[in-house]
Amino acid sequence: MNLNIGVVAILFALSLSGAWVLFKLLQSTASISKKEYQMGGAAAGFLIIYGALNLSYTSIAKASACQAEEEQVAVKGTVDPALADAEVVYATKTVSLPNDGVFHFSARKKDLDNDDPPVIYITTDEKQYHYQLDPGQDVSNLKIPLPKGEGQH
Q1: Which residues does 123 contact at the CB level (< 8 Å), separation at least 6?
Q2: 69, 101, 125 - which closes a domain
Q3: pLDDT tens profile 88-141
Q4: For the chain, what is the radius of gyration of the CA atoms?
Q5: Which of 69, 99, 114 is at the close of a domain?
Q6: In Å, how far are 99, 108, 112, 139 from 71, measured between CA atoms?
Q7: Three-state SS at 48
Q8: How many structural domains are present in the chain?
Q9: Which pTM value belongs to this model?
Q10: What is the average per-residue pLDDT within 140-150?
């Protein structure tokens, strides 16, 4: 994960402040011993604090990014003319189409913004119609026209 300079500066300042409080005011001790190097005192404390803050920040940022990818958006539309006993199918979601032809469901925002957006199917026992969504299309009030003479009121 890329850290911008502002985040690095804040983590650095917090780590430096924490090391100062721990080692200047509270007289703490710390050491890091590796095969390649050895470090002690405030410098070791600074690196330990910085590492812990960096790990915490990247974990939180990653979780936030995952949550944003899973953001749901409302999809609403009208099948015109309305079909009796029909269903609207979107990926793994199926909703019964009311007699007025208006449907509602939620979808993942990342799927709708994809370069290859999904298709909405309107199905009855006898026929199936499809409506191809466009990338980034406003799905808050879709109008799905059926071929003339296909609707049942």
Answers
A1: 86, 87, 89, 129
A2: 69
A3: 888 657 788 888 888 888 887 777 777 777 888 888 888 888 888 888 788 888
A4: 28
A5: 69
A6: 30, 6, 11, 14
A7: helix
A8: 2
A9: 0.46
A10: 82
